[in-house]
Design a protein that fits this description.
This protein is mainly alpha-helical. The chain has one helix at about 5-45; strands at about 60, 70. The N and C termini lie far apart (about 75 Å). The structure holds zinc ion (ZN).
Length: about 80
């Protein structure tokens, strides 16, 4: 029976690989959670900026009745000319 040890080794390697990848997955989850928590702590420590960090996208005109969304890095509203924050 020369095949049995080979099958045993293959199963062992597959099991180890699955174990290894599950560990990696858990580590990635933990690291992602820690980093998102850190970002929340660092970002939320100062004044609250709802759409500040994007900078390149997601600017909304502050003028009532306009509220145009600028998807480009703009300083002034392209519709009414109001200064964007
Ligand atoms: Zn506007």
């Amino acid at each position: 029976m020369p095949g049995e040890p080979f099958i045993f080794i293959v199963v062992l390697i597959l099991g180890l690989a699955a174990f290894f990848f599950s560990i990696l997955y858990i580590l990635a989850r933990v690291v992602g959670f820690v980093f998102s928590g850190l970002g929340r702590m660092l970002g939320g420590s100062g004044r609250r900026t709802p759409i500040g960090h994007g900078a390149s996208a997601g600017l909304i005109c502050p003028r009532e009745g306009c509220r145009k969304v600028e998807n480009r890095p703009a300083r002034f509203c392209s519709q009414c000319g109001a200064r964007l924050m």
